[in-house]
Amino acid sequence: MSDDFLPIDPVHATLLAGMHRICFAEPWEERAMRELLAMPGAYGILAAPKPKEKTGDQRPKGFILCRVAGDEAEVLTLMVLPPYRRCGLAKQLLVRAIDAARHAGASVLFLEVAADNGGARALYSSEGFEQVGCRPRYYNNAVDAMVMRRLLVPSQK
Fold first, then answer.
1. CATH number of the structural domain spanning residue 17
2. Cα–Cα distance, 20 to 33 (Å, whole number)
3. Within 10 Å of residue 106's Cβ, how many Cβ atoms?
4. Which of 81, 88, 104, 146 could form a disulfide with 68 if both were Cys (CB 3.0 to 4.6 A apart)?
């Protein structure tokens, strides 16, 4: 089974907030999603089954939200619903977001990840991110946020 990767816009806010609520202890509300997506430089990618497949399950599987400002970009959130984890979907979303940031003119991409999220940290490291900082006790559960960065090489034209 393969997936479509679709651009996200503010009309997806309700869907995104519901998905976020499933995956995070501190989920973003619909209003926050809508406001973020309306900001200049914001973009997102939604992973969903291809419509022509007769799998019976047409639910979205995950998404990534980012923003670009000047020559810097930031991953704001990346999530894959539990039934679809460990299949490479997060990596596919991340790679597409990296390409979009590069295409938008960013030379560096930042993100924050919970220090206790070993799976996510391993994914980011495997895609060229390195830790450049720490925000102590950043999350409500007092877990540190690791600040990670990836330099983006110019795309080949």
1. 3.40.630.30
2. 10
3. 23
4. 104
Total domains in the chain come to 1
Does any domain span residue 57? yes
**Residue 70: CB partners within 8 Å, gap ≥ 6?**
105
Q: Name the DSSP letter for residue 79.
A: E
pLDDT tens track for 97-143: 999 999 999 999 999 999 999 999 999 999 999 999 999 998 888 89
Distance of CA 57 to the CA centre of its chain: 22
Dihedral angle of Cα 10, 16, 17, 19, to the nearest 10 degrees = 170
The pTM of this model reads: 0.89
Radius of gyration of the chain (CA): 15
| SS3 assignment, position 148 | strand
Residue with tokens 């990346």: 78
CB 42 within 8 A of CB 33: no
